[in-house]
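Quick check before the chapter quiz. The format below is the same one you will see on the exam, so make sure you can read both the input and the output lines.
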Amino acid sequence: MRSKMKKLVSFLSFRVLIHLILLRPFLKLFFGINVAGRKNLSSLEHYIIISNHNSHLDTLLLFYTLPVKHILATRPVAAEEYWSKSNAAFKLVNYLFRPIWIVRDQKIEDPLKEMKEALDSGHNIIIFPEGTRGEPGQIGKFKTGIGRLAVEYRSVPIIPVFLSGPEKAFPRKSALPLPIWNNVTVGPPQMFEGDSLDITSSLEKMIRELSESETAKRHRRHKRPRPAFAYAVLGIDGSGKSTLSRMISKKLSDALRVCLVSDNLEFYESENQKELQPLLTEKVREALGRYAKKAKSLKHYRIPKLAELLLRDHIMGEVQRWYLPDIIVQDGCPLLNLAAWAKIYREEYFNAETCSKAIKVLTGRGKEFRKDDPIFTEARELAALKRFKLDHMRLPDAVIFLDVAPSVSIQRIKSRGEQRQVHETEEKLAKLREGYRLVTQVVEKEFNIPTRILDGESEIDKVTASAMEFIKGLSLREPEHE
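Here is the expected output.
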């Protein structure tokens, strides 16, 4: 008997581990999930969850929202005829979620019988009162079954949940899911008096109200009238640009929503850092960045760093699309970093004209340059980026260059106690310093971008004050660069 019990416990524990180690991380990384109101579930032991229903992701999202201790104690109601079309899918769903299987169009004495048995045995249940997946983004009329169940189990609270996102991430007629954010808004627990029709109507109204609530709206994608204004802080390693970028972000967030694009994404509002829903591309970029830092030579550093910069530039678009900041502060700028690094990799060709041409090509403005233009010979990588349509990088709207002597930077890098990167030598940092100086001049002269060069060897408070003075002198005009 003990042996059987151990096997059963092991079997159930493995099912929880699949949820925690595989399903939840996959959902969070591939789609991204924001849960509002989770506290409405955490204090309860027994409940019925109801939700709108547009996608097969719905059940996964609701299980993602559950307290861990309730994973095994919760059972969703599902249509048997749909999942039984595939024996493998049926077995997998049956194992992971142990659904209460419903056979539609089958005349039985009490269609709620199995739900009642589950509630009587102490299980929580998940019901989609619409009865089937509705039209994307629309809430259908609720079936009366939930009302009848509520009448018989008045002591069991009902938790209304509104899901937004799965109707786009994995719509009804789609064969493959898309990496689109999903939002789960959990309402407070409800207990009812009255008859089943009134209760059904009240629950439908609650779900509709949740769909219109500020909590749900805040996380949806909206069209912005203009792109966020982007400041780029440039400087060689050890210049203090990361610290300055963060200081600027916090100060600007006093009145605006600010996203800092650095080694990590950070979001500030009212001078406080807010939690961000992670982006899958950001996780890939972080991994590439870590790999590049471990390179033993410039040759091995170049490719992963190029890929990391291209992804960082792509993330600028993702940040504007999903986080809706008013301002973006860049710790470095992918486009301008690439141009400055030409001083190391293509020093013999590095001058103001070449730099200007390279920036035009990388921003898609170099259509007047023919294939035989010297720029594509002098900087062969440009031809490859253009061929693979990676020539739409973004120019910032204003640039701050933090100028520091390489010897000072090396001292600061050593004080960190970390392993130095392959380019962190006085000789290479001196070349990069020249590269950034030239790039700063070119973007101001050729592209009419406001720039300011600051003494990075001054105290950080003084540097920050100078940076804020420069920023306040700029109006938040409509950005000219895309």
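If your answer matched, good. The first strand starts at residue 33 and ends at 36.
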